[in-house]
Amino acid sequence: MARRLIDQNRAREARRQGALLDRLEVGFRNRIRAEIARAMGEMVTVYELTGDVPPARDHLENIEAIFRAMAIAAATTFGARIIDQGKGSGYPLEIKGFAETMARLALSYVAGELIRRRIVSIAETTRNQIVAAVVRGYADGLGVAEIGKGIRERVGDFSTYRAELIARTETHGAANFGAQEAAKETGLELRREWVSADDARTRQDHVDADGQVVGMDEPFIVGGEALMYPGDPAGPPEQTINCRCAVAFLTVD
User: Fold this and answer.
1) 123 assigned to some structural domain
2) pTM score, two decimals?
3) What is the pLDDT of residues 101-146, one digit of tens each?
4) Cα dist. 142→52, 53, 122, 135, 157 in Å?
5) Domain count of the fold of the chain
6) Quick check: 178 and 80 in contact, CB under 8 A?
């Protein structure tokens, strides 16, 4: 009989994973917001002095460092839960050096082309927002001082919105990546089940995918797209950004 490696109650499992994601998201959202605000503030200052908007110093490197920490925390938290709950269900799971293994896998995840591309895009978007605001200011007939003042007044809104979106999306993808890798480390014969988030914001495609079961190396088909797990960075933005769906791992006794 198939049973879930973690929680036999699908709705409760989705809520538990959602609560874990919320806690991870809050901490990293603040770090991302602070870095974006710092970079924007620096670019505005340089613009006011020189009339140019060069990239902010170390912005790309700082975003990358946050992504590494975020991936390690999310992958380890969700991976450890697979192991702990599996043990609680009676499976003899003993994985040596688990934390080190998950950290190594998380770093390889961040170093991959898809996540690297996202990091570069985030840094470029920070500058592009400043450039766009400067162009609008000139079009409105404003001077450098007025443009700089107007941008500074909006930095908080810019950085807050982007930080929420980035933290929510990226912790989710890294968490489900970690859960999948930890499940593989158990050596158990498993299948995976898509568990849709139970709220009014859930996409119809994701509601339709609820209960879909696939093998460990098979993708879910969601809205016609192949996703290895909810938040899969290889998936299109319309199926991954702000996704809160979960994965359950099924084993057969």
Assistant:
1) yes
2) 0.90
3) 899 999 999 999 999 999 999 999 999 999 999 999 999 999 999 9
4) 16, 17, 28, 10, 21
5) 1
6) no
